[in-house]
Structures are given as C-alpha cells and as structure tokens.
C-alpha cells in the first residue's frame, strides 16, 4: 500500500476545489460545453447515454479497505448502488449527477482517491501487475515505478494537452499481466547481467481502430533514468504526433509512420539533452518513494497448513482453491482472485454491499489490501493459507466465489451500447449469454484457460484484439453485428487476433462461440493444449470451416 | 484582448502586424514567421523592437540564429486543446536559453494559465476579460507541484528531498 | 465511435431532437415550446431534413440547459404516441437491456 503524505492530500484538496469552481462556472454559463468538456474529462467525468459517468483511478491497481469502502459509499449515495471495474484499473460510476460530482469527489479525496487523468489527452492512470509485491516471479515491486510515474505525470504542465491520450503500463514479472505490449508505452522491469534494475521500453502499442503490438526501442534503460527518458518520448510525441485527425493522433501512428528506428533516434537525441537534468532520479529519491509503500508484516508460516488441508476435503472449496488461489512469494501465503464474473451478471460490476464485504475481508484476512486487474476481477494479494477456508466461505456467501477465473465465462467486456455514448453494439448482454452457455463450470474447466474479450465498438475498451476469442460489435443498417477474431493474446507473447469470417448477428454470437469452443475440444492435441495454442498450431481455417458450416 | 505580464494586466507595447500590412513607423511590432524571415533586413534596419509569432509546426530549435534580434516571442494555441506550444516554450527557456518575453496567444483560457506559467510563458494574452481578472486565483490554486518544469516553483520530488535542481530559472 | 452528433444527417421518417440535461445528464427531448422535457411524449416531431436542422439549430443556441443535441429517429404509432426509433434511443429511454446489479 502506498501511503499518501500531506503533499498528496493538499494536492487532492486543491484539485477538488478547482473542479468545484469549474463545475460552478459551467452551471453559471461562464464556461461553454466545448470549454468545459476537456476539463471534466481530465477529472474522469464523461457524459454517457443516460447520465454522467465518473471514472476513478486505482493507481497501479492498489486499494486499501477504507478506499474501497468509500467507493461503496459513493455508489450508494451518489449513484445506483454499484460500480464497474474497467480493463485499466479504474472503477466507473454510471449514474452520477454533475451537480453532485464535486461532493462525491471530495468524499473520495478524503481517502486519497480521485479521477485525475482518467480521461483526456494526457498521461492516464499508470497500470501494472495486480500481483505486484506478492508474486514470486518479479524482480522488483513495479508499483514503485508506477508511483514515480504517477507523481511525474500528475498535472504535467507540458503534457496535459497531448495529441491524444497516453497510456503507460509496467510489469516486473516474466509473465506479463499488465498487457504492456498493447500500451502507448510498455515498461518491462528486469535486471541486467550486473544485477542492476532497468527497463525494456516499448512504444507504439495499442488497440482501437488501428491496433499495433508495441516496438522495443531500448533493451535496458537504467531505472533511475526512467523519468528523463519518458519525458523525451513525451516531448517528441507532443511536438510531432498528428493533430489533424483524431484517429491518427495516437503515438502508435507516429511510430508506425516514421518507423521505430527514426522515432527512437529522435527520443535518444532529446534524451541526451535532458538525462542529467532535474529528472535524474537519485537513489534517495527512489528510496523515499519506496519507503512510502507499506508491506504486510509476513509471519513465519509454512505452505499447506492443517486448516487448508482439512478444508480441501470439501470439493466446492477445493475447486475454488484450484481456480482462484495462486502462489505467493512468502511461504504459507497465497494470492486470491475474486471473480467479478458470476455467471449471468454484468462482467466487472460490484455492488456497494459487495465492496463493503470485500473491504471487511481484506481487513480481516488480507492486510487491508485489495487489487484490481485488467481482467476486471479483484484480488487479495496477501492471504495466509490457514485463512483461505474462512475467506472462501465469506466470499461464497456474498456471491464472490465463482471458480471461473481465466475460464471461458471470465469474460472481459466494455460497457457497450447499454451505457456508452460511443458504442455501436451491446457487449454486456452478449457476455451474459455466452457465460450462461458455459454455466456448467465442469464443462468450462474442461475447456481450460480461454479469454473472451468483447468490445461494443472499434475503440476496443474490451480489448477484443487480444482476446483468445475477440468479439467486436459493429452496426450494419441499424442492427448489431459482431466480428469474431481468434488467437489474440495480451501477455508477453502479445499478438492480435485473426478475423474468423463474416460478422454475425447478436442472436448468433453465443452459438458461434460455443461452436468455436467445441471445435477446439475436438481438435486439441490433448487436455494440456490450451485453446490459444491450438489456434496457433492450426490457424483459424479449421474453425472457420466448422463454425460457418453450422450457421 | 487583455495582456497579462507577470501577473498584471498591462498595455501591449507591441503592434501585431499582418503580413500584408505596412509596418507602423517606429513602433514595436509582432510579425508572423514568413514576414520575419523574408523581411529580416528591413526589420533590422527599422531600429524598433521586433517580435515573432513562431508557428507550432516548425521546430523551435530553428529560431536559435534569430534570438539576438528578437524582443518578443509569441507561441500560438490554435485551440486550447493543442499543446505543442508548451513543449516549444520549455525548449526555448531551458534549451535555447531565451530570457526575453514569451507570450501565449490564441485560444488562451483561464484553466491553462498555470500550465503556461509553468512552461515558461511570462506574457499571456487571454481571450476573456474575466479570465484575465482571475489570473491570480487561477495560478495560485495549487501549492503542490509534482514535477520540475521551467518555473521556479519547487516540485515535490525536490521538496520531499530538500534538494534543488540546477539550471532552473528563478 | 460514431456518436450521432458526428454523423451526417439523414431523415427518412419522423425525428426529434434529443440531448442530455446539463445538471444531471438525464435524457431530454426538445419540445414544441422551445424547451426540454424528460418525456419523449413531449418531443417536437419533424419529418424533413430542413425542419430537423432548424430544430437542431434552435436547440443548440444555448448550451446551459442541455448538452450535445442531435437528431434522433422516433416512431409515431397510429394513435400518435411516440417511441424511440432505434436501439440506441430505446436504451436511452428505457435504460440498459439487462438487470442492473442490486
């Protein structure tokens, strides 16, 4: 947990006061909507189909119990009793009133939570691995570096009106849970042969209308030079990124048009001029940020304590344990994923009551810490294994123990046309219908790991390009149609999916997905060959033949 | 449009002259880049201060050979959402060492004043009278600044460590 | 992506002008009296592109009551009752198409 100090608290209070003033000026007419819109967006306020939406940042996916409880409070008092966790470690409230927004924001600011830079053409909430500081795979806590970037980018005077939005993700583990290859900048923290920390820097990844996998422009950037190098990237982009066409304004287009090599040269030239300047991070500066992260006082424990072994005799608990509990770096502890994908419910939604329950459980069993992952599930990163049975019983009672993490009905979906002003087609009901087809979790488990991602428009908030099965909603003559892709992935082997065939209607989607899955079950080399590997081995053709013959 | 210099509303001592207008006798003039480049000799011969509006789409480094004959540099915000001039301003101050007046012109609104000040602008030509009057409030809303920029405000990285950064203008 | 505000106006049938209320974002419809109503039934309905553009221009003159006005299709039944003319507008009027969390 990162502890905000008096500077952070003062800043947030000042930000709330500024936004209150801006809302006041808008309501009085001193600001036109054109002038106000970028200001509200910079505070995470959108105008959607039915109401204003407030997007709150969960920097590097880390929350404490008090913060989650405050989100429950905001959901209850200012919204309709629930919130939606997004694919970028944010939470959204869908029914907020503009008049009440300053109050809601003040309530959130009291616990160090805000919507700053969750929208707008600025550096957005920096995301990372939801298992940070818990997984044995990582070389350092990536949140340290995400926090340094958060501070650096907050209200940056030079980079608040970029050509387009800018998303940075950091991973410090070999297995990438932060999807860094599909971000504007992806940072892979690793150690060189001398044992020093540094970043591989990727640029120009992204999804949306023109998807790209990021290109590596530096193998090893010494960690203490992170900010000057990022500033060099931002300065090149701010000056030379396209501003003539909103659809070509992301950094990926600039990198694509001039080439990664040219882009890298421009960055290196800019960097050479600033690397020894004010942004050089001293060891003290890094240590100061590092010291503000509070880690649990892990006790000396052993794996597989008696309480756990006994409980594993219960098949329901054992099933959940196999699915939702992961290896921790400290013996006797585990990482627990809380599925926000109960079959038939909107993916990623949590009610205020559920948020309160999770906050309580985090306090009781998880060092008061909660994480949010891009898969739209929550996570308790530090749970003593002896507490797992009690935790499971409490989660189960609250409808939060569906053992479907990473399975076919753990579907990632954007809000789609049911909420979003940009969407062309619905996403949530499609996810619900597909999930119901696999409601028999034994069947879903038999299928194994399979990520379905659904976006309601080409902006790709549901990351459909990198779903093992990707589903993109489009509009044809006023009707909803869906394009299906296979073989995308968001991890360290990131790649974009391949189109399966012609778009199908809303009603046809669940059946088609079922056919794809059945085809995989038939064609796979064995139960250990994952869906994504079968697609890699065979391509989409065999799927296409089978699926379109049936429809 | 009201001009704010170092926090105060002032009279503009420069006359903005379009490319096809005659140069007013003896007055300080602010001209566009084309005129500045094509009439460089004539402008020098006038013996009156000259300022230039440097365009967003021309690398600011190219202004370096001309700095000696300039008394004002203006950078344009075609829309307040277009932030290229922030980078140009910082480079002018921090890289090219420009100490003279640096003016923000165009679609310049209250909510961007602070960013402009932090990026090195010391003159701001506001679109709205009410915004100009609110300058002091708009630039003192915050007491905390996370990152170092061109201005002398202590940034949090430094505040926390009690260190100062060389090369930053005060 | 292609919000109606960004699309070229095509009018083949009855249309109304809709927007979101500034204070709370509620869906509102332009009325014959030149105001805004949360009831679709109160909407001024026109059937030609010229009339729709005129209604839209008049609605857009002041952005203090409602935000982002655009022309939306409506259905007029035999009794003259109004219904939203496409899925997007049905969702705006009736809310999301699934049960909300509670």
Automatic annotation (TrEMBL), chain A:
Domain Nitrite/Sulfite reductase ferredoxin-like span(s) in chain numbering? 52-111, 344-398
Which superkingdom, per the lineage?
Bacteria
GO CC aspect terms: sulfite reductase complex (NADPH)
The family database entries (Gene3D superfamilies) matched by this protein are listed as: Sulfite Reductase Hemoprotein, domain 1, Sulfite Reductase Hemoprotein,Domain 2
Give cofactor(s), names only.
siroheme; [4Fe-4S] cluster
Q: Which GO terms describe its molecular function?
A: 4 iron, 4 sulfur cluster binding; heme binding; metal ion binding; sulfite reductase (ferredoxin) activity; sulfite reductase activity
Tell me where in this chain the Nitrite/sulphite reductase 4Fe-4S domain is found. 119-272, 410-547
The UniProt entry's GO biological process terms, in alphabetical order, are: sulfate assimilation
Q: Which UniProt keywords apply?
A: 4Fe-4S, Iron, Iron-sulfur, Metal-binding, Oxidoreductase
State the protein's name. Answer: Ferredoxin--nitrite reductase
Please tell me the species this chain comes from: Ancylobacter dichloromethanicus
From TrEMBL, chain B:
Name listed for the protein in its UniProt record: Oxidoreductase
**Organism's domain of life?**
Bacteria
Automatic annotation (TrEMBL), chain C:
- Specify the superkingdom: Bacteria
Looking up InterPro entries in the UniProt record yields:
DUF2849 (IPR021270)
Query: Could you identify this protein by its name?
Result: DUF2849 domain-containing protein
In which organism is this protein found? Ancylobacter dichloromethanicus
* Taxonomic lineage: Bacteria, Pseudomonadati, Pseudomonadota, Alphaproteobacteria, Hyphomicrobiales
């Amino acid at each position: 947990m990162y502890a905000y100090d008096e500077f952070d608290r003062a800043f947030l209070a000042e930000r709330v006061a500024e936004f209150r003033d801006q809302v006041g000026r808008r309501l009085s007419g001193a600001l036109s909507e054109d002038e106000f819109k970028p200001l509200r967006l910079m505070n995470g306020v959108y105008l959607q189909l039915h109401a204003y939406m407030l997007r709150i940042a969960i920097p590097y996916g880390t929350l404490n119990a008090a913060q989650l409880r405050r989100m429950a409070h905001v959901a209850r008092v200012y919204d309709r009793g629930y919130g939606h966790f997004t694919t970028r470690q944010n939470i959204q409230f869908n029914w907020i009133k503009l008049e009440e927004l300053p109050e809601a924001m003040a309530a959130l600011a009291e616990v160090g939570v805000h919507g700053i830079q969750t929208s707008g053409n600025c550096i957005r909430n920096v995301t990372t691995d939801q298992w940070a500081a818990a997984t044995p795979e990582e070389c350092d806590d990536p949140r340290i570096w995400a926090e340094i970037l958060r501070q650096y980018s907050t209200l940056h005077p030079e980079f608040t009106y970029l050509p387009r939005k800018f998303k940075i993700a950091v991973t410090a583990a070999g297995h990438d849970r932060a999807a860094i290859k599909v971000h504007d900048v992806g940072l892979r923290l690793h150690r060189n042969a001398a044992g020093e920390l540094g970043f591989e820097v990727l640029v120009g990844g992204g999804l949306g209308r023109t998807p790209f996998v990021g290109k590596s422009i530096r193998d090893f950037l010494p960690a203490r030079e992170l900010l000057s190098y990022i500033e060099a990237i931002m300065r090149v982009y701010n000056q030379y990124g396209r501003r003539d066409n909103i659809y070509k304004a992301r950094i990926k287009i600039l990198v694509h048009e001039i080439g990664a090599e040219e882009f890298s040269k421009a960055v290196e030239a800019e960097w050479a001029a600033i690397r020894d300047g004010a942004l050089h991070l001293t060891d003290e500066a890094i240590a100061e940020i590092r010291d503000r992260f509070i880690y649990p006082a892990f006790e000396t424990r052993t794996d597989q304590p008696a309480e756990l072994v006994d409980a594993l005799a219960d098949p329901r608990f054992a099933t959940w344990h196999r699915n939702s509990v992961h290896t921790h770096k400290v013996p006797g502890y585990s990482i627990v994923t809380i599925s926000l994908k109960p079959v038939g419910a909107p993916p990623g939604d949590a009610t205020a009551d559920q948020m309160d329950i999770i906050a309580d459980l985090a306090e009781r069993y998880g060092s008061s810490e909660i994480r949010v992952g891009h898969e739209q599930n929550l996570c308790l990163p530090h749970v003593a294994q002896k507490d797992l049975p009690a935790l499971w019983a409490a989660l189960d009672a609250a409808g939060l123990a569906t053992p479907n993490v990473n399975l076919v009905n753990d579907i990632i979906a954007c809000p789609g046309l049911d909420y979003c002003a940009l969407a062309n087609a619905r996403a949530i009901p499609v996810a619900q219908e597909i999930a119901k087809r696999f409601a028999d979790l034994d069947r879903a488990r038999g299928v194994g790991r399979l990520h379905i991602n659904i976006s309601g428009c080409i902006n790709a908030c549901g990351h459909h390009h990198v779903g093992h099965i990707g589903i993109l909603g489009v509009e044809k003559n006023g009707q909803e149609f869906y394009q299906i892709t296979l073989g995308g992935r968001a991890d360290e082997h990131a790649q974009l999916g391949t189109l399966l065939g012609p778009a199908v209607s809303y009603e046809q989607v669940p059946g088609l997905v079922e056919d794809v899955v059945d085809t995989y079950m038939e064609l796979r080399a064995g139960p250990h060959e994952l869906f994504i590997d079968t697609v890699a081995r065979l391509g989409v053709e065999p799927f296409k033949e089978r699926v379109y013959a049936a429809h | 449009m009201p001009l704010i210099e170092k926090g105060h509303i002032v009279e503009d001592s420069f006359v903005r002259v379009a490319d096809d207008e005659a140069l007013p006798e003896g007055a300080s003039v602010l001209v566009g880049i084309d005129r500045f480049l094509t009439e460089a000799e004539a402008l020098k011969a006038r013996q009156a201060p000259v300022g230039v509006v440097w365009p967003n789409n021309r690398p600011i480094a190219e202004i370096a050979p001309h700095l000696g004959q300039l008394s004002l540099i203006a950078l344009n915000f075609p829309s307040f959402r277009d932030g290229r001039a922030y980078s140009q301003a910082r480079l002018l101050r921090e890289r090219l060492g420009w100490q003279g007046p640096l003016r923000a012109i165009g679609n310049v609104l209250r909510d961007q004043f602070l960013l402009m000040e932090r990026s090195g602008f010391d003159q701001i030509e506001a679109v709205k009278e009410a915004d100009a009057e609110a300058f002091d409030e708009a630039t003192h809303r915050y007491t905390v600044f996370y990152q170092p920029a061109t201005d002398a405000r202590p940034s949090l990285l430094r505040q926390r460590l009690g260190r100062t950064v060389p090369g930053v203008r005060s | 992506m292609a919000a109606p505000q960004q699309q070229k106006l095509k009018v083949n049938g009855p249309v109304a002008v809709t927007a979101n209320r500034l204070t709370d974002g509620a869906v509102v419809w332009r009325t014959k009296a030149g105001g805004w109503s949360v009831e679709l039934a109160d909407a001024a309905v026109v059937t030609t592109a010229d009339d729709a553009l005129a209604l839209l221009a008049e609605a857009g003159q002041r952005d203090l009551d409602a935000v982002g006005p655009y022309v939306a299709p409506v259905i007029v039944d035999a009794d003259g009752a109004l219904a939203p003319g496409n899925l997007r507008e049905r969702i705006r009027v009736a809310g999301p198409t699934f049960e909300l969390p509670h």
